[in-house]
UniProtKB/TrEMBL annotation:
Residues in coiled coil: 222-256
Keywords: Coiled coil, Membrane, Transmembrane, Transmembrane helix
Protein name: PhnA-like protein
Transmembrane segments: 30-55, 75-98, 110-132, 270-292
């Protein structure tokens, strides 16, 4: 006896079950197609934006936009092109998946956005990052520049504190090359400089030996310049006051640079957050619109 059920096909994911049209909740092939569209459209629009931007450069006529104008325009174009590409990608993924529930379409758009974002971040670390990552490449350049600014701002502090390579070299020479005379009046200019450098190190360290180091420096200064002890001590105090002022200015410059860097980093972080959030919203809306469009066509 022939089994009548043997030739009956197995119900697929799109068969009718109890009068309802069923489907898979996630279609990875549709998501892949949506991501391909997102990356391709983003690449296309980025190249278009670069072409438009470079077309405004006219060095001979002197009408070239400023760097800030270029940066603002590139940022706005990056956000707009990202939203457009993600909307189309989310729409395509939900449409190809054949989902009929708007929330499922919205989720397909969000997943498309997530995969496209991760893929973009991966591509930015590869050789093609310069093509599709104009906005993020600029962000990376800004971060690098800010980091260099901190380093440059910290350099004056190190110099003012007496720990620059030149100072270390001078101090090493002072330690390794003993003077040939102990009487300040009998010292050669080279020996006097070595002795002053050695005692300056002791004075800067502070402690019980600092007063003696100061008196030794004052005595050498008075003997070498042939001035009174009072004038030599005043000269020493004036020099120390200038060094302290230089240190304070260097510290203030470093603090201002650090504040500016932190503010710029904060603004950049918020800008990237808003950009990603807008992309997620537009991708989800695209998926939802695809489901609504499919329902409209079915009713027609």
């Amino acid at each position: 006896m022939t089994d009548v059920y043997a030739a009956r096909p197995v119900p697929s994911a799109t068969d009718m079950v109890e009068g309802r049209h069923t489907h898979k909740r996630v279609s990875w092939s549709a998501l892949f197609g949506g991501v391909v569209l997102v990356v391709s459209i983003q690449l296309l629009l980025s190249l278009l934006g670069a072409a438009i931007g470079f077309s405004t450069v006219d060095v001979n006529a002197g009408n070239t936009p400023s760097a800030s104008t270029f940066g603002t325009g590139a940022g706005i174009w990056w956000v707009v092109s990202g939203c457009v590409s993600l909307f189309i990608g989310g729409y395509a993924s939900a449409w190809l998946a054949g989902v009929e529930i708007r929330f499922d379409g919205f989720l397909h758009g969000l997943v498309t956005w997530g995969i496209a974002t991760l893929l973009t971040l991966y591509l930015l670390t590869s050789a093609v990052g310069g093509l599709i990552g104009g906005g993020f490449s600029a962000l990376g350049g800004l971060t690098s520049t800010l980091g260099s600014g901190i380093k440059s701002a910290a350099a004056p502090i190190a110099d003012a504190a007496g720990i620059s390579p030149d100072m270390i070299r001078q101090q090493a020479q002072a330690f390794l090359s003993p003077t040939t005379a102990t009487d300040p009046a009998a010292m050669s200019p080279q020996d006097a400089q070595k002795e002053v450098a050695s005692n300056l190190v002791t004075y800067e360290k502070g402690g019980a030996d600092a007063p003696a180091a100061k008196q030794r420096i004052v005595a050498i200064t008075a003997a070498q310049l042939k001035i009174s002890q009072a004038d030599a001590e005043k000269k020493f105090d004036d020099a120390q006051a200038k060094i302290a002022q230089a240190k304070a200015q260097a510290e203030q410059t470093a603090k201002a640079a650090a504040d500016a860097t932190a503010s710029a980093a904060s603004k950049t972080g918020f800008a990237v957050f808003v950009d990603l959030l807008l992309g997620a919203i537009f991708a989800g809306i695209g998926g939802s619109v695809a489901v609504a469009r499919r329902g409209t066509l079915r009713r027609v």
